[in-house]
Amino acid sequence: MDDVSPISDVLMDSDRRHLIHPLHHPKDHANAKLFTRGVGAMLYASDGREYIDGLSALWNVNIGHGRKELAAAAAAQMEKLAYASAYAGFSNEPAIRLAERIVGLAYSNMAAAYFTTSGAESNESAFKFARYYWKRMGKPDKVKIISRRYGYHGVTMAAMSATSLPGYQKMFGPLVPEFFQVAPPYPYRWPGNGDAGVGAADAVEEAINAHGADTIAAIICEPVMGAGGVIVPPPTYFPRLREICDRHNVLLIADEVITGFGRTGKWFALGHWGIEPDLMSFAKGVTSGYLPLGGVLVSKRIHQAIEDAPMDEKFMHAATYSGHPVCCAVGLANIDIIERDGLVERAQVQGDRFRKGLETLASLPVVGEVRGIGMLAAIELVEDKGSKKPAAGLGGKVVAEAGKRGLIMRQRGASDGPPVSGDSLCLAPPLMTPEATLDRIVQIVGESIEAATG
User: Fold this and answer.
1) DSSP H helical segments within 137-215, as ranges?
2) pLDDT for 181-230, tens place per residue?
3) Which of 55, 76, 164, 321 falls between 20 and 30 A from 421, CA-CA?
4) pLDDT the model gives residue 415
């Protein structure tokens, strides 16, 4: 049985006095849930209530909660080798085998993996790989990083500077120099009647020309923008962007922290558009969140630049926990489950079904758009469907109503920046979520929208 008051009251009192949470504000934490257990797509709180985990915790619990195989993999590795340095000159079997496994599952041009502990650290590392590569190529001025508005890449300093959601930056400036943003491929909010994919790709080329290609190291893109509102690009976007990057000698970094490991119905999401990146950052789904792990895959040409470097130009990037044997052992066990249970294919099939269910809510007056791919979905809320006027503040009310009904999800708040947008309700259930639970999510979201607007 779950813990109940007064123990939970004592714990939460200690929490308020001693623990600072991500995105912390006391008002946001006043009625916090104390989770004690997770099983499949469900989370259980100390007050005895159960909740559908409609966001896979933070887009990461791909295989669902409570999988004993991962606990067993961690325990077995800890008993044998809990930790050892993976700095040059040392290695361990789980790190070697996981690197080989991920390279084999990813794009055909990939060669090697560098391991981190998080998505933000992965993106920080990707920026350094890009700058390192161009210095090795004799082009030291290629240092600038392009990202897209509404993109989220983490909130460490360089990652925050690539992230283009102002709330994450307001109290932490100034930003790291040499980072700038361009328009995203956001069909629902694209101005005029043009193709948002073509227009957004051309915006990248315009920025490259304005700054000078000899100053641009890379552009970083989420294949599907996650925290920015699950924005799925038109099919024209990435093929055109790849061609522009090749023509101007700019590296393409795929931020697959959310979209990797089956989330979109493919192992990695750029496969939907038939292109390959030069660098790929990953995290979240690699261990389904059971232990912290992330990394960067590098293409063959970037790997060759590292391998051929003279000693005075060696790759001097490092982290204590890179290639952590226990995290890598859990990653291997997690991939085994994804493959054995057919979760990549399931995400495609059940994701299509889930989205069709959500599309039944399009008749509600405040639902402007339902969008998604695989087991990723969003509902954008508006005051008026014709004008698409943003429904600022409504998303938080809907999320609160959903919580009362036993569903956890998140919302991307409305933005005043171009393009103006409404609140978006974001959903990303575990890939194994049963059909009946997916149907219940749709029902709760509909009830919650009606309650919040009624």
Assistant:
1) 157-162, 196-211
2) 999 999 999 998 899 999 999 999 999 999 999 999 999 999 999 999 99
3) 55
4) 72
pLDDT of 420 over the 90 cut: no
Domain ranges of the chain: 33-63+342-453, 70-340
CB 4 within 8 A of CB 46: yes
**Domain with residues 70-340, CATH architecture:** 3-Layer(aba) Sandwich (3.40)
143 phi, psi to nearest 5 deg: -125, -15
Say yes or no: domain 33-63+342-453 is CATH 3.90.1150.10.
yes
> Would you say how long the chain is, in residues?
454
**Sign of torsion over alpha carbons 314, 317, 319, 320:** positive
- Cα separations (Å) of 391 from 149, 192, 396, 443? 19, 21, 11, 21
Sheet containing strand 50-53, strands side by side: 35-39, 42-45, 50-53, 407-408
Is pTM beyond 0.85 here?
A: yes
Whole-number Å distance between alpha carbons of 150 and 380: 14
